[in-house]
Amino acid sequence: MTTGQSPVDRLANTIDRLRKELDEMRAGADSRALVELAKGVLVERLRCGPAQAAEQLALLAEHAGTTTLELAVDIINEVSGDNLAAVANEPDDTTAVRLRTAESGALHADDTHAVAQSLFDHALAPLGATAVAIWSAGADSSLTLAGHAGFSPGEASRWRYVPPGVPTPARRALVERNAVRIVDLGESGLPSIGPGLPGRIATPAGTGGRIAGVLEICWPGPLAPQPMSVHKQLEALAELCAATLDSTAAPNLVQAPSELADLADGLLDPALVLGPEISPDGAITDFQVHHANRGFVDLAGRSRSVITGKSLLQAYPLAAAEGNLFDKIERVHATGEPFRTDRMTLATLIDEVPLTVTAAVSITRHGALVLVVWRVQDETARLANLLQHAQRLGRVGGFEEERHSGRIIWNSQLYTLYGRAPSTDPVPLSEIAAHAHPDDVLSLNGFLHNVLRDHRQASAAFRLQRPDGITRHVRVIAEPVLSPQGELLAVRGAYQDVSAQHWTEVALSATQDQLALTEQEALERNKLTLQLQQAIMPPTHPTIEAFGLRVGVRYRPAAQEELVGGDWYDAVVLPSKQILVSVGDITGHGIKGATGMVVLRNALRGLAATGAGPAQLVTWLNLVANHLTDNIIATAICGLYDPHTRILRWARAGHLPPVLIRNGDAELLPMLRGLLLGALAEASYEEGEVQLEPGDTLLLYTDGLVERRDVPLDDCLDHLCDTARAPWSNLDELLDHLLAHGASNTDDDTCVVGVQLP
């Protein structure tokens, strides 16, 4: 005995030693059980006694160079032919021993916890797993922790039950009917037992097409890719768990066919009790009709005795096609998760002619059996359901009043419209005025007189004032129901909530009034703009002849009045005997463009009287655009012609260059440096000059003469030069020709000034 240990430490060491000895004894017992099973196989095959079988097993193991346990496992695999035997063919010789030892321990276990411990010790721990959970699937698709190993008691207690609908790895495996591999539980966002163990695989545990539960194996770190041999081992262990869960299932979870038949007979709707038909490879091929209840009505008119005993696809061959009824039954049988729907198409054959009906269907699993219940929707019920939805969408509430008994029937929509609880008494039609706006009482009295006294159908619109203070715009229509003698028996009709339509009409009317006012204001504004522009810039201008120089002008306003812009021109003889010619273009349209044009044109005239040159005039004009106007941006060309020297000095502010026509040819003058007017407060402008010769013509114009939306500007200017080269007899003919053959398509103002030296 170790000295210095406390009694508690000695007791803990003793318990640990006894636990290890117990585990070794359990493992030894599982191994001995396999050896004894192999001996029994040899007794049956060799027709010998137990002693001779034991001696033969030892001799064969010695000759094969293997242990007695390994040879015993090989013999069991040879004769069993099950899934564990198939997995045992893997290259790893220890796999078969581990799996058979785990199976032996599971078969001799007292409960599912012992099964989980056996699987963990013999089969899963060697794969690196640190914990295992065996989940049992309930009839309501809930999950119960039937067995576990590797988890603390507190953790297992917290996860002893998972309600239906909680998305865990085990539930995914149950619903998807396939193994679910989780690399990292934290990243997956799925809750599950043992959150500190990130890697895990959840495998459905089922036999005969029915999933009894899920086997969930956990690893201490993120799950690395597993070889196919490991997945096969886990599937074989899951099948072993399914057999264990079926054998240990609580009696209330497995319902006998007779009990389920009694339950079905108590239902008023047609019901079938189905059991699976399983192929040799374990797959479901069909379901057999074990019982049809007393309320059963066959879709094809057959008696229930004809249906009972047949397979589902034999009785209803179209169940696998129309509505996928067979797939739904198979899924419910596999997962235990109930299926319900209000509308499903059911089909059958009558004399080889398919007949389809719409029904509400319910499918539930009870142990190994499935209960299918349906309720066919007849035409009356279907139309009533359709009418109810139509009334709800149309916000219509219906009513009927019996005059003698005073009985009043309202549908749910009418209670909602009145803002009254369904438990309250309906409002008689004769009291409708008491719930209306006072201004509508007079029209409602006329409506009631027509219906109740004159016995005529009538309608009225009024404002319904509800108890909650809300006012609804309502239209009511009613008709009398008369006896053959003309006596009033009842009144029926409907209310319709037209509040949305009313407010839409009010808003539309207000919008139309506003649009009409806006349109009138726009017309007046455009008219004023056009009058202002035409007063200052008439479409035609008399040709100016002064000091041997002729100046002609053509101006064409925009095609649309609302696009009236700020194009301007000027030609005037200054006190210095020089001639000022200018063109410009204000950005924008309407009043702002027209007033900006007036400001710049008049400012240039005034500044020109100072005798300054074109560059200086444009510089001053830029200051005017920046400081004395409301954010005007414009282009302009200013030219001063001296009759004595025949020199025209000019400057440009972002404007297109002039065109010089000389000796039948036309070309653009240089593109002098100069920013737009109003772009910068401080700007300098370059000045150029041209010596005019007899017969020369100089064209100044705005972009409305040349620009096209789909053509580069250089090509547009080339087209202008080509047009100007055409032969002409005088200046007026040239300007008219340019306007008529201009290729512009921008619908902008157009201004062209021609300066000719005869």
TrEMBL record:
Keywords noted in UniProt: Hydrolase
Highest taxon of the lineage: Bacteria
InterPro entries per the UniProt record, alphabetical: ANTAR, Bact_Sigma-Reg, PAS, PAS-assoc_C, PAS-like_dom_sf, PAS_fold_3, PPM-type-like_dom_sf, PPM-type_phosphatase-like_dom
Stretches assigned to the ANTAR domain: 15-76
Record has Plastid as a keyword: no
SMART domains, per the entry: ANTAR, PP2C_SIG
Domain PAC: 458-510
CDD domains assigned: PAS
Keyword Disulfide bond: no
Protein name: Transcription antitermination regulator
Species whose genome carries this gene: Lentzea cavernae
